[in-house]
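How a chain folds remains the central question behind the approach discussed here. This step matters because it turns folding into a mapping between discrete strings. The sequence in question and its structure tokens are set out directly beneath this paragraph.
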Amino acid sequence: MSEAITLADIQRARQRVASAVRRTPQVVSTTLSNALRTNIYCKLEIFQKTGSFKVRGVFNKVLSLPPEVRAAGLVAVSGGNHGLAVAYVAQALDLKALILMPEGTPSNYVEAAEGYGAEVEYAHTAAEAFAQVDELTRAGWCFLHPFDDPDSMAGQGTIGLEILEDTPHVTDVIVSIGGGGLMTGVATALKSMKADVRVWGVETEGADCMAQSLSAGQIVTLNGTQSIARALGALAPSPLTFRAAQTLLEGVTVVPDDEALDSLRFLLERMKILVEPAAACTVAAADRLRRQFTQDRHVVLILGGGNIALDQITPFEPL
């Protein structure tokens, strides 16, 4: 199993966050099942609070902290779902939150974070943002890493427990990888309870730090990310998530942006759900992996986030 967390950690996380997060639905997709000639299920984390899986990990982390530690306030570096989760959790627990966002962050993320009561400040570069974090933590603020934290990973792993309850006959799960926290939690839960489940990672071209790291046999740090899948923007996995990928994954499939966008439009047209490219790429990966899935397989796609504005996927004229 992963060295980062254990099944017991995930089970404790579930008890800790049960009243704070939603148990999201999992549905059969007849259209995808017919197209891929197997049995496809979609785990709809897009209906989680704040529109993504991230609140599971943030709640577990914050509720694990001594009250005096979290009382000083929460700080995050994020131009996406992690920032929204930190803002929401802070509001729910009556804490201060400061989100450091890169310049150019889409307005829907900024407005949502501020709507939850967080203060938003902009940084020119990631290095500048993390320099600010160092100063804030010295002043007592609690920094919440977007993926490299065992408590956060355990919170994300509660998705794996739900998948096993809803589909005890699951054979395969496809999960997106940014920095690898979601993958580590979910794969640990699945493999601990049903060792023969195959877990497949997916990244997009230009945001494929885990695939490159696995290929090299060591952690590879990207110079930057060039993908429409903003939520997969980590420059490198952490030692914990890299070891989890080496141990728990069948492999990582890398798909181009155009396939992720085609899958996004497919899900919107056929299933009437709007997901982020970082979630839609699981559908594109399933298509690339179709030879791995016979008619007796049961494949769950984790659709991890739905925070995307319509004008980010297609231009339109307002009515």
Notes: The beta strands are 26-28, 39-44, 74-77, 97-102, 119-123, 142-143, 172-176, 198-204, 249-255, 298-303.
